[in-house]
Amino acid sequence: MKAIKTKYLGPTNTRGSRIRACAGDRQCVTIPYPYEARQGEEAHKRAAVALAKKMGWGSRGLRGGWIGGGEYAFVFCGR
Predict the structure, then answer these.
(1) Rounded CA separation 52/48 (Å)
(2) Bridge partner list, 75
(3) Contact partners, residue 71, CB within 8 Å, separation at least 6
(4) What is the pLDDT of residue 74?
(5) How many domains, the chain?
(6) How far is the CA of 15 from the CAs of 9, 10, 75, in angstroms?
(7) SS (H, E, C) the chain
(8) How far apart are CA 15 and CA 49, in angstroms?
(9) pLDDT in tens, 11-66
(10) Which pTM does this prediction carry?
């Protein structure tokens, strides 16, 4: 089973807000926070999709939700 966990990273003195998506095998991708996203979950899903594409998994059937602490988890459901 493939799972992706995302986390919001706040701005620093040199970088804006970002979202980091990581898979269980420590493969990660960080994207700038997509302010045009309507809701927080949509922003996190964009990071999960970016990681899925990087890993060659595609993004079909990707579902997820909030797990607390500013983090979301996404898994692949039936296609």
Answers:
(1) 6
(2) 3, 63
(3) 5, 6, 7, 8
(4) 95
(5) 1
(6) 10, 9, 29
(7) CCEEEEEEECCCCCCCCEEEEEECCCCEEEEECCCCCCCHHHHHHHHHHHHHHHHCCCCCCEEEEEEECCEEEEEECCC
(8) 22
(9) 999 999 999 999 987 899 999 999 998 788 999 999 999 999 999 988 788 999 99
(10) 0.89
Query: How many C-beta neighbours within 10 Å does residue 38 have?
Result: 8
Answer yes or no: is pLDDT of 5 > 90: yes
Beta bridge mates, 64: 74
21 with 47: CB under 8 angstroms? yes
Residue 43 contacts residue 50 (beta carbons within 8 Å): no
Tokens linked to 17: 């807000």
Measure the CA–CA gap between 76 and 65, rounded to whole angstroms.
12
